[in-house]
Write the structure tokens for this entry.
Amino acid sequence: MNKLICFDVDGTLTENRNSWLILTAGLGVPDDKVAEIYEKTENGAMSISDGVKRVVELFRATGRANKEYIYNLLSNIDLKPDAIEISRYLKEKGYFIFLLSGAIDVRVRAVAEKVGADGFHTHATLIFNEAGTLADIYYDGRQRSMKERVLRGLSAEYQIPLNEIIFVGDNDNDAAAFRITGRGIAIQPYHEILEKVAWKTVKSLSEIKDILK
């Protein structure tokens, strides 16, 4: 394997909004409370462990934070209409497809299965106790640095130079991945910061065919 393409998930391969918003709305937790905790952990104002504890407490207080409910909630996915098509095309061209996302593990795994991805790495993993109740959330460091770190690891593992790895995304937390690869493809509607660091921009996933022929 000598060709690698990585995809963000929420907003890139799916039509659905952010998986965290889906989870908080489904549980009945105000979005702003979780967003505030997230921003504090990202900017260092709160430790990740304290942030996780507070989020888990908010979720458990709803009485709906159980494995069956959450899995059903996050596995209900609307892929972009050309997501499977572009995956098949890239596989025919010899690409290894890897999903690299800040979305929740349940969500990313479901998308990986639908598009036939070869692997994935996610920022957040939900941990349930023996009774099936949410007990903890494992965060792989801070999201804004996670993608860069994982890309460097993939580059070393598969012996592919960073500047030969393609990364497709739409959000501001994809900017670091765009910068270190120099091969970032921003899909509309994308965060304005990506305009400055994108290698290419596309309106739809199918347009990637015109770039990777």
